[in-house]
């Protein structure tokens, strides 16, 4: 007998909850902000809107379904199941934080603060939750398959991200490496830079776009469902031993970019989650390309 669907509600601590965790009470947090010319009122209002959204979404889950709730900090310890419907309640970035732990489960994005969030991935209001849950489990339910990017190290470590993957030094140092096409016979160009960014069409609304604009790149930005990635080297440094001839490009399906480490340590992390990173040392290599899995976003 097949299991009933399980609604997994993903959320994160609000700014108000973080203030209480730091200062202990509402009064102390309010005093801390007021002494700096700021008010706690707007932060508290956003907190209450988020709590209301969580209550409404939980109430919209059908009685025959199972349900669970997970906070962002616990995502790497939560076991998602094939029959799950994932409901992300919060900001766009929370969808990206969740995507790397999924394997095809439908995702519903609920915006807790319309007008303040861009709404690229959290496209729906809390009042739509019941209808969206039905759509997610129906045979004809509409969803977009958003392209993801992956990094695979030579020791089989793997990292997947929805927006972008960054490779670079863990601090404010210079990363040294060789950069070339995956599968090519040439060793690649020796480079020294502050890192390499490889991004998707979803990431083209964020960090990837800022680099694209800064460079005045002629490469067209991909759309979220396009099987295409763009990559940029950040602040490449020319010297007698390092070059700058390969600082931008694009990757299609089946194509890869290979980076071989030539410094003590390089970290690889996705979607800003530096706490969940791969660490590579001298001589190791990593391949960047389009991931086989995608994010199934209910529309």
Automatic annotation (TrEMBL):
<dbReference type="InterPro" id="IPR017437">
    <property type="entry name" value="ATP-NAD_kinase_PpnK-typ_C"/>
</dbReference>
<protein>
    <recommendedName>
        <fullName>Inorganic polyphosphate kinase</fullName>
    </recommendedName>
</protein>
<dbReference type="InterPro" id="IPR017438">
    <property type="entry name" value="ATP-NAD_kinase_N"/>
</dbReference>
<dbReference type="InterPro" id="IPR016064">
    <property type="entry name" value="NAD/diacylglycerol_kinase_sf"/>
</dbReference>
């Amino acid at each position: 007998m097949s299991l009933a669907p399980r609604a997994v509600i993903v959320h994160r601590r609000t700014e108000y909850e973080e203030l209480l965790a730091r200062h202990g009470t509402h009064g102390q947090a309010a005093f801390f902000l007021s002494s700096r010319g700021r008010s706690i009122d707007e932060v508290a209002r956003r907190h209450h809107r988020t709590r209301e959204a969580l209550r409404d979404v939980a109430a919209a889950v059908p009685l025959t379904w199972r349900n669970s709730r997970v906070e962002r900090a616990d995502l790497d310890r939560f076991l998602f199941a094939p029959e799950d419907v994932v409901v992300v309640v919060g900001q766009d970035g929370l969808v990206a934080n969740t995507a790397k732990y999924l394997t095809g489960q439908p995702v519903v994005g609920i915006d807790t603060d319309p007008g303040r969030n861009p709404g690229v991935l959290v496209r729906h209001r809390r009042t739509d939750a019941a209808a969206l849950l039905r759509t997610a489990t129906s045979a004809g339910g509409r969803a977009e398959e958003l392209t993801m990017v992956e990094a695979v190290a030579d020791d089989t470590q793997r990292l997947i991200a929805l927006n972008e993957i960054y490779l670079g030094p863990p601090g404010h140092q210079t990363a040294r490496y060789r950069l070339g096409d995956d599968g090519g016979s040439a060793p690649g160009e020796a480079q020294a830079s502050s890192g390499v960014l490889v991004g998707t069409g979803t990431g083209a609304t964020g960090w990837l776009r800022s680099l694209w604009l800064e460079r005045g790149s002629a490469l067209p930005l991909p759309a979220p469902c396009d099987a295409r990635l763009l990559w940029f080297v950040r602040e490449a440094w020319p010297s007698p031993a390092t070059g700058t001839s390969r600082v931008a490009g694009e990757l299609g399906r089946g194509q890869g970019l290979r980076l071989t480490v030539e410094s003590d340590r390089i970290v690889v992390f996705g979607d800003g989650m530096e706490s969940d990173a791969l660490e590579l040392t001298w001589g190791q290599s990593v391949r960047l390309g389009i991931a086989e899995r995608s994010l199934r976003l209910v529309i």
